Amino acid sequence: MKFQGTDAYIASDDLAIAVNAAIRLERPLLVKGEPGTGKTELARQVASALGMPIIEWHVKSTTRAQQGLYEYDAVSRLRDSQLGDEKVHDVGAYIKRGKLWDAFAADERVVLLIDEIDKADIEFPNDLLQELDRMEFHVYETGETVRAKVRPVVIITSNNEKELPDAFLRRCFFHYIRFPDMEVLKAIVDVHFPGIKERLLTTVLTEFFEVRETPGLKKKPSTSEVLDWLKLILAEDLSPEDLKREGKDMLPKLHGALLKNEQDVHLFERLAFMARGAR
C-alpha cells in the first residue's frame, strides 16, 4: 500500500517518499509550503489513492486542542436539570465528539487531516502530543478511555505562519513542498487543462514565473493562482501575443488572478513608469 500520486495530483518523488515513510513509521506527516502548493489536497489524494475515508479538521485562530477530542456542554445540562429533563442523567448526551474521536472510533483506517495547525495558539500542538503519540485519550465526564481501533494516517499542514514547538516537531515526519519548476508545473496544468497548445502554455508559464520572481513582490502567486489565471486566459481566448508585457502594459493581463494586494499592483505600475522613463 504505497502512495505514488493520482491522476488528479502530481506528486514529486520526494513527496511520495515522505508520505510512505510517515505511514510506515506511524508518525504524523507534517507538510509545510507556500499557500496554494497543494498541502490540503495532498491529504485528500492520499485518502483517495489508498482507498481510505478522510476526516478533515480545519483549524482556526480560535480552535482549541480539546475540541478535537470532545466538548462537554455543561450549560445545556444545567438548563435541562432546571427544567427537570430526564436526559440530564445521561452525561454522554452532552458530549460532542471531535475529529480525533471520530478518527479513533472508525472501524477502518482513515486519513485524519489537521489543516493549518499554525493558525491556532502556540500551545495547540503541544496539547495534542500525548493523544497523537498514544492514540488514546480520557473522557473525564464519563470515565471512559477512547482508543484508536485502527491507527489513522495523520497529515498535518502548516503555512509556516508561526514556529511549531520542538517537542511536537520531534514526533512528526517532516516534508516541505517546494514550489514546482516549469516542467512539473506543466504536468500539473496538463491534469487540469489537457490538450492546451504548447506555445500558449509556455508563454503563460514564462510570464507567470517572471511575475513570481519580480523583486519586491509581497505575495508571490501560487500554483492555484496560475491555474485560475490560465482558466481566464482560455475563457477570453487570449493568444501568446496578447500576454506580452512591455512599456505601459507591465501589469499582466487579468492580473487580479495573480496579484492579491494593492502593494503588488503598485509595484508593477511603478515598473511601467520606470520603463517609460527609460525610453
Q: Please report which band the strand proportion falls in: under 5%, 5-15%, 15-25%, 25-35%, 35-45% or over 45%.
A: 5-15%
Helix content: 40-55%
Class of secondary structure makeup:
alpha/beta
- Write down how many β-strands occur, each being a DSSP E stretch of 2 or more residues: 9
Order of helices and strands: HEHEHEHEHEHHEEEHEHHHH
Distance between the termini: 61 Å
Strand order of the largest sheet: 2-5-8-1-9
Structure notes:
The structure is a single chain. The chain is α/β, with parallel strands linked by helices and about 280 residues long. About 40% of the residues lie in helices and about 15% in strands. The strands form 3 sheets. The chain has a 5-stranded parallel β-sheet, with helices on both faces. The chain has a two-stranded antiparallel ribbon with strand order 3-4. A two-stranded antiparallel ribbon has the order 6-7. The chain is elongated. The N and C termini lie far apart (about 60 Å). The relative contact order is 0.14. The model has no long low-confidence stretch (mean pLDDT about 90).
Task: Please describe the structure with a list of short key phrases separated by commas or semicolons.
9 strands; two-stranded antiparallel ribbon; elongated; alpha/beta
Brief rundown of the structure:
This protein is an alpha/beta fold.
Write the layout of secondary structure elements.
Elements: H1 13-25, E1 29-33, H2 39-50, E2 54-58, H3 65-69, E3 70-72, H4 74-83, E4 95-97, H5 99-105, E5 111-115, H6 124-127, H7 129-134, E6 136-139, E7 144-147, E8 153-158, H8 166-170, E9 173-177, H9 182-192, H10 198-212, H11 223-235, H12 262-277
Parallel strand pairs: 1-8, 1-9, 2-5, 5-8
Antiparallel strand pairs: 3-4, 6-7
